[in-house]
Amino acid sequence: MAIVGLDTAVFTAPDMKKAKAFLADWGLKKVRDGKKGAVFATRIGSEIVLRPDDYPALPPAAQEGMHFREMIWGVSSRKHLAAIRKELERDREVTVDADGTIHCLDPNNIGVGFRLWQREKRVKATPERFNHAGHYRRIDARAKLYERAQPLRMGHIGFIVPNLEAAEKFYHKRLGFPISDKYAGGAATFMRNAEREDHHNLFLIWSRDGNTRFHHIAFEVNDIHEVFGGGLYVTRKQGWQTEVGPGRHPVSSAYFWYVKTPVGGAFEYFSDSDFVTGNWKPVSFRENRFSEWHLVDGIPAPEEGYRDRPSLSNAGKA
Ligand SMILES: [Fe+2]
Q: What is the pTM of this model?
């Protein structure tokens, strides 16, 4: 089906001003703003769309009170888009916009759409030079310190759903998302939108209480330094609350930092995820492997006393 990646995520905003402030602090670029809502973009141009609550022609919320409304996946060609439409029309209502974007609801009533991919696939950033033992690549130079993050793209999206089995059938069997890993007993499934991809682009967790919830969207940043720089900026300087992080996922190997959003769920900065191909062998994990390590409440500011000490940058000057 040739799905390229996450193109757009649509939310309603109960407090538009607050939601816009969050997206700007997150490091996204405002590309449109008006009565119909606001649009913020990652560096490849994929978008977070905010709509007012009463905006017409929005997919319904999958659950009362949920602000997440739709994820739109980019598809490589009109031929593939037509094939997806044909597949979806077998058993559900599909609407089509003038530009060819198709919309429907998935088995858990989550809005899902597909459109022709017109973004860059990846931003080729200049890689940071990391020094490994015996392999020194950064010589006579300090590593980069990020004041804040500028997310490159949306890497993955996660939901908590009551009917994980039906969702897996829909995305894996019908839309061709390969399964990367699972939690045993139908607890959660990690899927990717193509064979050669990040470890996961879609993460679905079984809902114990029967409610559907938006869990998070993860934004890729350059490297671990930008995960820290972004997380510190939004939490310490802008006062948004850490959901969990920083930390490291053992399942995808990625570094992470999740921050609570004013439209529900969390946004995650991530870096250094496993990138897999058809040779990847899925594992069914018997125990929760959310993190190898993580901080629960973010990183507190250094104590004043610590700040006032002669700093390392002054060392040698005394
Ligand atoms: Fe994630």
A: 0.94
Q: Quote the CA–CA distance of 59 and 79 in Å, as a whole number.
A: 25
Residues 160, 260 share a domain:
yes
| Amino acid (1-letter code) at residue 17 | K
Maximum distance among all alpha carbons in the chain? 76
196: domain CATH number? 3.10.180.10
> In Å, how far are 143, 275, 306, 318 from 314, measured between CA atoms?
18, 41, 14, 7
Give distance in angstroms: CA of 124 to centre of ligand 1: 22
**21 in a domain, yes or no?**
yes
- Quick: pLDDT tens for 256-306: 999 999 999 999 999 999 999 999 999 999 988 899 999 988 998 887 666
CA angle 106, 110, 111 (to 5 degrees): 85
Q: How far is Cα 170 from Cα 166, in angstroms, rounded to an integer?
A: 6
Query: Are residues 92 and 172 both part of a single domain?
Result: no
Angle formed at CA 256 by CA 221 and CA 235, multiple of 5 degrees: 85
Report how far ligand 1's centroid is from the alpha carbon of 79 (Å): 31
For the chain, what is the domain count? 2
For 65-74, b where at least 16 C-beta lie within 10 A, e where not — what string?
A: ebbbbbbbbb
∠ CA 312-317-318, rounded to 5°? 100
Q: Give the distance (Å) from ligand 1 centre to CA of residue 89.
A: 31
User: Same domain for 205 and 106?
Assistant: no
Q: Ligand 1 center to residue 183 CA distance, Å? A: 15
For residue 229, what is the enclosing H or E element?
helix 224-232
Clarify whether residues 189 and 250 are in a common domain.
yes
Domain that includes residue 182, residue range? 153-294
